[in-house]
Amino acid sequence: MKNERIGFGSKLGAVLASAGSAVGLGNVWRFPYETGQHGGAAFILIYLGCIIFFGVPIMMSEFVIGRNTHCNTAGAYKKLAPGTPWKWVGFLGVLTGFLILSYYSVVAGWTLEYIFEALGNAFSGKTAAQFESSFSEFTQDPFRPVLWMIVFLLLTHYIVVKGVDKGIERSSKIMMPLLFVIVIILVFCSLSLDNSEKGLDFLLKPDFSKVNSDVFLGAMGQAFFSLSLGMGALCTYASYFTPETNLTKTAFSVATIDTLVAILAGLIIFPAAFSVGIEPDKGASLVFITLPNVFQQAFHGLPVLSYIFALMFYVLLAIAALTSTISLHEVATAYLHEEFGITRKKAACMVTSVCIFLGIFCSLSLGIMHNVKVFGLNIFDLFDYATTKIMLPVGGMFISIFVGWYLDKKLVWSEIMNEGHLHRSFFKVFIFILRFVAPIGIALIFLNELGLFKIIEKALTK
Ligand code: PHE
């Protein structure tokens, strides 16, 4: 099986596909609203800490597992730790992938509706209140968003079925540079608006009075989500890496590109929002209500610019989302294809069908099914909370323990050093972080959220 497996043709392909997985709605949609709700720069600092201490080492660990085994994520644990419960970490990843893909495709579908609207110049002349009402009308509609979600999943399906080299690698090589160019243009446009410096202040000047346990959990979850970590997406991609790929360098490149795009997205959204007096804590609707309004108001006398700015932005969002849904889809497709011996096409059909089914509920939970609540959350929010704030960090914690404590250090060393062909490495630091810093850090953030420290503090002050 190992020799028949097609992989990425080049090192650049490996970096761009992994960066494509990482850069997505997480950067452009989720990061700004989490930052806005958690007080700006202080949140970003904690987020950066999570990227360095959890993100990069756990990404390297996923790369080690994937490239060493050349297997889908569940198969990889079975191969490295046969007959042990470690295989459940792989299954947890596949399950997490299904859940994320289902609600992620709903939002990805919205970007298609907005491209459609931008193309037809539907934003022109609308007021802030009209943007708000048309967004909630649209997301509560029982048909349109469901249809777009299905279209998005079919697009993803098409590329995944084309295969790793001709589908995933080729599309990433076109889409990632295009995305970067669009982001840079938009940042310049946004920074040139009146009053944009208030947005910059919000992004750059930390206000620590807003930091509480939720901010830590939010920043950690966002770091895992944004880097596509904790569920085997990058482990699956690494199984297609060539033996020459430098895992440390690739992990640093992907983390840098991902963080850069998130900050640049902040530089597009906050200066633009402040320039027209919109509050940054608008939540999940920031890029769908605030921004189209901004596009209208910002270029008052120049409707052509409003048109182009809006269209470019939603095309960017759709491209970023597509390179991520591909990686989510691939986790489950590779798993079904390799573990159950069915063709890639059949496996992909199964994944697409299940996600359409779950996605329908996620979409309807924002409209006619909004009364269906589990733990006080609708299905959409439940999927987001459970995956981002629980399943991904738990997955990440197990991955760091697996590579730090369970795996043979010689195997890990040989993957990180490409069997001795590389010279400089941070191998000892890497293992130390995996053994102690990452698992203990993640556990402390969970305990903090559960209120344990507050209880201890109270007990001590009594
Ligand atoms: N990292 C992607 C984003 O930021 C989302 C994602 C999460 C993709 C987990 C794959 C796995 O949009």
Architecture overview:
- By secondary structure, the chain is mainly α.
- It has one domain: Hydantoin permease.
- The chain has helices spanning 11-22, 25-37, 41-69, 73-80, 87-119, 128-140, 144-162, 164-191, 196-204, 213-226, 233-238, 247-275, 286-298, 303-340, 344-364, 379-406, 409-416, 427-449, 452-461.
- The model has no long low-confidence stretch (mean pLDDT 91).
- Bound molecules: phenylalanine.
- Phenylalanine is lined by residues 21-22, 24-27, 100, 225-226, 228, 231, 233, 324, 327-328.
Q: Major sheet, described briefly?
A: none
Shape: globular
Order of helices and strands: HHHHHHHHHHHHHHHHHHH
Query: How many domains, as an integer?
Result: 1
Question: What are the salient characteristics of this protein?
Answer:
462 residues, mainly alpha, Hydantoin permease, 19 helices, 77% helix, binds phenylalanine
